[in-house]
């Protein structure tokens, strides 16, 4: 079996059928939550974050200390900007990576989307909480960017450990080791982005699908 070493996106043939089915079941729940009452004005933002996730996850970086490569995930950025819409960007991005680049697998799209999407949702939910607590923008971004990436790596580790068709213990441990620099880079990157966006466009961050302004005067509704 051809299995790409250390890829966060698991390939076909790596997991048992039960875990594959559970992945699609979990993805169905995530997508139902994400698609609930999507507004037309949200679509461009979802598209931009989908493209960013697709491109970042498609660029592989060679590691000098290990015979493999890793890539950025950006699920922290996707979660902080899109909130509960994050699974839409993640799922479309993963599907495009498989169809266009053969990265990941068809049967593992469900479990891969859960691995990447669940930490993204957690980051989106945590952002407004950290903001209300007065945590500085850079620290907010660094914690959630690194935390979301680490969450995806840990979930990938657990899935390999408990759901693999073969004994992937060594591979699972190498996944954790190889992605330590990715976690650090993603934390620093999102810290800088959040610091910038908080100054120029704070409404983009930590918003769980804000409701458009409504007229205060009932007579204005006719306009």
From TrEMBL:
Short name of one Pfam family: CbiM
Sequence intervals crossing the membrane: 18-36, 48-74, 109-130, 142-162, 174-197
Record membrane topology: Multi-pass membrane protein
Biological-process GO terms, alphabetical: transition metal ion transport
Main location class: membrane
Keyword Flavoprotein: no
Localization, UniProt: Cell membrane
Gene Ontology cellular component terms for the protein in this record: plasma membrane
UniProt entry keywords in alphabetical sequence: Cell membrane, Membrane, Transmembrane, Transmembrane helix, Transport
Signal peptide: none
Keyword flag NAD: no
Protein name: Substrate-specific component NikM of nickel ECF transporter
């Amino acid at each position: 079996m051809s299995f790409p070493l250390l890829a966060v996106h698991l390939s076909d043939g790596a997991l048992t059928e039960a875990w594959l089915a559970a992945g699609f079941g979990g993805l169905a729940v995530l997508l139902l939550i994400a698609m609930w009452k999507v507004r037309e004005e949200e679509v461009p933002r979802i598209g931009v974050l989908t493209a960013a996730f697709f491109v970042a996850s498609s660029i592989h970086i060679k590691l000098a200390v290990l015979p493999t490569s890793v890539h950025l995930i950006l699920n922290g950025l996707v979660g902080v900007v899109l909130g509960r819409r994050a699974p839409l960007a993640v799922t479309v991005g993963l599907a495009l990576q498989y169809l266009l680049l053969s990265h990941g697998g068809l049967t593992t799209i469900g479990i891969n989307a859960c691995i990447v999407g669940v930490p993204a949702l957690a980051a989106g939910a945590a952002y407004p909480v950290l903001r209300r607590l007065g945590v500085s923008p850079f620290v907010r971004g660094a914690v959630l960017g690194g935390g979301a990436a680490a969450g995806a790596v840990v979930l990938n580790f657990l899935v390999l450990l408990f759901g693999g068709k073969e004994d992937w213990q060594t591979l699972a441990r190498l996944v954790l080791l190889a992605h330590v620099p990715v976690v650090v880079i993603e934390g620093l990157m999102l810290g800088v982005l959040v610091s910038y966006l908080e100054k120029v466009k704070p409404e983009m961050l930590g918003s769980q699908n804000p409701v458009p302004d409504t007229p205060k005067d009932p007579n204005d509704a006719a306009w």
